């Protein structure tokens, strides 16, 4: 019989990687895993229960909130509140940070930034969606944790991960010692170690971006797209276009097969659409830990200054060679954009 290692067992085994840690981070990861299983249960029967469709409200970014967005947000918040290892949460679905002031959590070491349900537009149509999370150590030693504690650069992340609710459900995470993946075995209700030491292929054949926005793309992206589409046997071109519209699923696929995901600036999103704190930084940490690359077209995502919890950024993320190539086109044809992004960052 093959030996199964559950996420819980794996975390305990890896505890040795943190000689000064007392198990808090492990318990925090376990709490996130528990909430993920509850969300997974609901996603799996979404057509049968009253969980599809819109919640009838807008979030802070002016996007229509779905019922499943609300459900997932509630589950992760409640798991983190009762777990006792997290003193502050920044969520896509909450305008402001959530302080956890209970006796046990007030002095907890960690902060969690989360996109509870990524790929909202795919919820109602049975296409893979995800959860993205990022964990930071609080800046202050003790006492009430404030918003300032979460405004940290991506390089300061202690751990990051995602859950993909797809044809199977997986949890993938890093604590800065490589990337490991766990598949949920529904028969025992456990995430089981299935993808050891995940590696982003150095190059690939897939590019993912919303080509419907083409006319609004910066010149560098337009030129890079042309490069992807032109035939060249030596470099395996033309590449294939694949866009799911759930960032987690697009990046997960590219991590397995090789590829680049781009969400550039557009006319409607002049600072980019995706959020730095709970979408781009955690995925950049995972992708870099797997040997890939993540930039805003000019600068490393994890080095960007963070001013607001819902701050946006353009992103170029994936196989190292492909991201570097796209950056070459950006600096040749869209150099002026670099200055305006720097100005946004310096504000
Ligand atoms: O529909 P668009 O503009 O291509 O945007 C799709 C992108 O927006 C997102 O859905 C944003 O995430 P949320 O669903 O968490 O708001 C990404 O997952 C995805 O890559
Ligand atoms: Mg998202
Ligand atoms: Mg979301």
TrEMBL record:
<dbReference type="GO" id="GO:0042132">
    <property type="term" value="F:fructose 1,6-bisphosphate 1-phosphatase activity"/>
</dbReference>
<comment type="pathway">
    <text>Carbohydrate biosynthesis; Calvin cycle.</text>
</comment>
<dbReference type="GO" id="GO:0006094">
    <property type="term" value="P:gluconeogenesis"/>
</dbReference>
<dbReference type="Pfam" id="PF18913">
    <property type="entry name" value="FBPase_C"/>
</dbReference>
<dbReference type="InterPro" id="IPR028343">
    <property type="entry name" value="FBPtase"/>
</dbReference>
<dbReference type="InterPro" id="IPR033391">
    <property type="entry name" value="FBPase_N"/>
</dbReference>
<dbReference type="GO" id="GO:0030388">
    <property type="term" value="P:fructose 1,6-bisphosphate metabolic process"/>
</dbReference>
<dbReference type="Pfam" id="PF00316">
    <property type="entry name" value="FBPase"/>
</dbReference>
<comment type="similarity">
    <text>Belongs to the FBPase class 1 family.</text>
</comment>
<dbReference type="GO" id="GO:0000287">
    <property type="term" value="F:magnesium ion binding"/>
</dbReference>
<feature type="binding site">
    <location>
        <position position="279"/>
    </location>
    <ligand>
        <name>Mg(2+) 2</name>
    </ligand>
</feature>
<dbReference type="InterPro" id="IPR000146">
    <property type="entry name" value="FBPase_class-1"/>
</dbReference>
<feature type="binding site">
    <location>
        <position position="115"/>
    </location>
    <ligand>
        <name>Mg(2+) 1</name>
    </ligand>
</feature>
<feature type="domain" description="Fructose-1-6-bisphosphatase class I N-terminal">
    <location>
        <begin position="5"/>
        <end position="196"/>
    </location>
</feature>
<keyword id="KW-0479">Metal-binding</keyword>
<keyword id="KW-0119">Carbohydrate metabolism</keyword>
<feature type="domain" description="Fructose-1-6-bisphosphatase class 1 C-terminal">
    <location>
        <begin position="201"/>
        <end position="330"/>
    </location>
</feature>
<protein>
    <recommendedName>
        <fullName>Fructose-1,6-bisphosphatase class 1</fullName>
        <ecNumber>3.1.3.11</ecNumber>
    </recommendedName>
</protein>
<feature type="binding site">
    <location>
        <position position="118"/>
    </location>
    <ligand>
        <name>Mg(2+) 2</name>
    </ligand>
</feature>
<dbReference type="GO" id="GO:0005829">
    <property type="term" value="C:cytosol"/>
</dbReference>
<feature type="binding site">
    <location>
        <position position="92"/>
    </location>
    <ligand>
        <name>Mg(2+) 1</name>
    </ligand>
</feature>
<dbReference type="GO" id="GO:0006000">
    <property type="term" value="P:fructose metabolic process"/>
</dbReference>
<dbReference type="InterPro" id="IPR044015">
    <property type="entry name" value="FBPase_C_dom"/>
</dbReference>
<dbReference type="GO" id="GO:0005986">
    <property type="term" value="P:sucrose biosynthetic process"/>
</dbReference>
<feature type="binding site">
    <location>
        <position position="115"/>
    </location>
    <ligand>
        <name>Mg(2+) 2</name>
    </ligand>
</feature>
<comment type="subunit">
    <text>Homotetramer.</text>
</comment>
<feature type="binding site">
    <location>
        <begin position="118"/>
        <end position="121"/>
    </location>
    <ligand>
        <name>substrate</name>
    </ligand>
</feature>
<dbReference type="GO" id="GO:0006002">
    <property type="term" value="P:fructose 6-phosphate metabolic process"/>
</dbReference>
<keyword id="KW-0963">Cytoplasm</keyword>
<feature type="binding site">
    <location>
        <position position="117"/>
    </location>
    <ligand>
        <name>Mg(2+) 1</name>
    </ligand>
</feature>
<keyword id="KW-0460">Magnesium</keyword>
<feature type="binding site">
    <location>
        <position position="243"/>
    </location>
    <ligand>
        <name>substrate</name>
    </ligand>
</feature>
<keyword id="KW-0378">Hydrolase</keyword>
<feature type="binding site">
    <location>
        <position position="210"/>
    </location>
    <ligand>
        <name>substrate</name>
    </ligand>
</feature>
<feature type="binding site">
    <location>
        <position position="273"/>
    </location>
    <ligand>
        <name>substrate</name>
    </ligand>
</feature>
<dbReference type="InterPro" id="IPR020548">
    <property type="entry name" value="Fructose_bisphosphatase_AS"/>
</dbReference>
């Amino acid at each position: 019989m093959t030996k199964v290692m559950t996420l819980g067992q794996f975390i305990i085994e890896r505890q040795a990687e943190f000689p000064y840690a007392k198990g808090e981070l492990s318990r925090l990861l376990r709490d996130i895993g528990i909430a993920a299983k509850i969300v997974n249960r609901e996603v799996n029967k979404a057509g049968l229960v009253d969980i599809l469709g819109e919640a009838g409200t807008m979030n802070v970014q002016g996007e229509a909130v779905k019922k499943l967005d609300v459900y997932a947000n509630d589950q992760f918040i409640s798991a983190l509140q009762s777990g006792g290892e997290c003193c502050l949460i920044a969520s896509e679905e909450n305008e402001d940070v959530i302080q956890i002031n209970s006796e046990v959590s007030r002095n907890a070491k960690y902060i969690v930034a989360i996109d509870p349900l990524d790929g909202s537009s795919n919820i109602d149509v049975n296409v893979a969606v995800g959860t993205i999370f990022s964990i930071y150590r609080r800046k202050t030693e003790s006492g009430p944790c404030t918003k300032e504690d979460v405004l940290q650069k991506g390089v300061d992340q202690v751990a990051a991960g995602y859950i993909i609710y797809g044809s199977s459900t997986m949890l993938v995470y890093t604590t800065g010692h490589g990337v490991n993946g766990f598949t949920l075995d529904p028969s025992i209700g456990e995430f089981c170690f299935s993808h050891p030491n995940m590696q982003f292929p150095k190059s690939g054949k897939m590019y993912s971006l919303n080509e419907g926005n083409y006319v609004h793309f910066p010149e560098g992206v337009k030129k890079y797209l042309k490069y992807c589409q032109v035939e060249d046997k030596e470099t395996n071109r033309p590449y294939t276009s694949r866009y799911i519209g759930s960032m987690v699923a697009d990046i997960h696929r590219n991590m397995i097969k090789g590829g680049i995901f781009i969400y550039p600036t557009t006319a409607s999103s002049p600072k980019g659409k995706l959020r730095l704190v709970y979408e781009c930084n955690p995925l950049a940490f995972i992708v870099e830990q797997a040997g890939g690359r993540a930039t805003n077209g000019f600068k490393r995502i994890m080095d960007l200054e963070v001013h607001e919890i819902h701050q946006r950024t353009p992103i170029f993320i994936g196989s190292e060679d492909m991201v570097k190539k796209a950056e070459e086109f950006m600096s040749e044809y869209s150099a002026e954009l670099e200055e305006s992004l720097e100005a946004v960052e310096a504000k």
